[in-house]
Amino acid sequence: MDCMISNRLRMELKGLSPSAQVKTEWHDGIGIVEIHLAEPCPGFSAEWRIPQDDIQFRWVADAGKIGVGYPQFLPPDWFSKTTSQLCCRVPVFSLVGADSGNRLTAAISESILPVELYTGISEYSFQAECRIVFPAFSQPSQVQIRLDLRKIPFSQALRDAAAWWEAMPAYSPMPVPETALEPLYSTWYSYHHSISPEAVEQETKLGLEYGIGTVIVDDGWQKICGAGSYASAGEWVPSARFSNLKEHVQRVQAMGVRYLLWVALPFLGEDSPLFPMMKGKLLYFSKGLNTWVVDPRFPEVRAGLIQRCARLVESFGLDGVKIDFLDRFPLPSDCTDPAIGEEFAGRDCKSVDEAVAVLLEGMCHALRAIRSDILIEFRQDYNAPAMRHFANLFRASDCPGDRIANRRRIINLRLLSGNTAVHSDMLGWCGEESAESAARQLWNVVFSVPQISVRLADLPPEHRRMLRAWLSFWKRHRDLFLFGALIPLHPELNYPVVVADNDSSAAVVLYAEQYAVRWPEGKQRVLIANASASEKVLIDLEGPGQSAEIHDCFGESRGYIHLHPGLQTVRIPCSGYLEAH
Q1: Pair 499, 480: CB distance under 8 Å
Q2: Per residue in 63-74, pLDDT tens?
Q3: Torsion angle of C-alpha atoms 431, 436, 437, 441, degrees rounded to 10
Q4: Beta 393-395 vs 421-423: how paired, if at all?
Q5: What does the buried/exposed string (b/e) look like for 231-269 if buried means 16 or more CB atoms within 10 Å of the residue's CB?
Q6: pTM (2 decimals)?
Q7: How far apart are CA 233 and CA 431, in angstroms?
Q8: pLDDT for 527-550, tens place per residue?
Q9: Cα(409)–Cα(512) distance, rounded to whole angstroms?
Q10: Which residue intervals of 208-287 are DSSP H helices?
């Protein structure tokens, strides 16, 4: 079945039954293909192609981890597959031109079941070959494909796709309390499993002077026995060190700081007391993590997971939970589904993804019934559109010390997350490096809520001074950094320049030297931060001259300068910034 989206694009639909109905709409550069499946469908595909023209980059939503093929480039069509499902990645891709402009952004309404997306360059025609492979639908369904061909920044096309999903009732975002937008302390990189109540309380007290309002106690608080953390996972009871957990949580909260605990939801280790009664209700064994993944298709498995998380929040008075490893629920390709040989006995869902959605719906309902302003953190890459319904905080996936990865992952999250809080991966750095170098970690996460994970008492005096000044600066301009229109440039170069602006202000952060920063016109306040390795910053000012104040990485003034119209070199200290108003 063929359908014309516009005079530039013809789509071929393969595998649809005669009862399927297809409706297309085209308005102001956006095409919507709506496919109604009147009966169960074994799967179908949608295929089209467009000339490469100046397309030089294929943007996909995953974190760009090693081994994912070509996560950051323009792949050949025969090696371009990405898969989106509830717990892994987002059903969207964008083809980007040399000017960071949109050439084609395709988004799919199906956010729970696995959808395969292919887009790459044909070595025969040198056109961009695009294909979407939909899964089997067990009941009548409706799916939509949204194609954006407008000549706008690719970032705007992605933000508009996120707004399209957000308007769907099934994906309506979980409310985001103000508390999700405050700097946070995480114990993971700073303490790992060596965490204790005394350490948490010390970091909480020290964090107050930096304006840190929330602490996440990561892996290590729970009872661990036998072969390690994951091998004994599942029960989620405090260790002997945290034997008086409720009183400890109350002491932290008495300082005015919120308290979250980490839970690896899918895991059940053989050393857990729960393991004997859960045999036969497991999906697969992860050799790398030395633990089992439970099968959420059993209603009693879901009920147990919900009950244990709700018990944690209610019994210990928690302000929220960090729910980890949801991306381990999907069955690996080299594992056989145990349900098939058992004819799905005891399971009320055939699809693991659909069962996880039911689990998270119940979890969210139970936790919000305990406290309406609950904080629930999910990690990239389980940030599909449906996931915004179950969590109000997405964190960039782990990249310790990798400033570029943190920046890239945060920007990718921001473009698809609307007003859901986006947090950085936890920040740690060496006490022997310069304050300017440590500050570069912070500038790379400025467009997110920073999560700090260094031992604050061990920081050198210059690092404390820098961190205090930077977090104070970030909080003053938080609304601009988090809610201004985000315009990242050159995704193929890991966003060397990122802009955020609103009606009155604009912020430009430069991450690589020898890029000319275009002065934002018509703004009452302009911030230009230098996160590069050179003090020489090129600024192109098209309007009238401007006076500006220069600050170093400690927020101290280095004096005023006057910028004249045209291209000029300005000296801004490394990890410092210019401010004009």
Answers
A1: no
A2: 665 444 445 589
A3: 100
A4: parallel
A5: bbbbbbebbebbeebeebbebbbeeebbbbbbbbbbbbb
A6: 0.96
A7: 33
A8: 999 999 999 999 999 989 999 999
A9: 17
A10: 245-254, 275-278
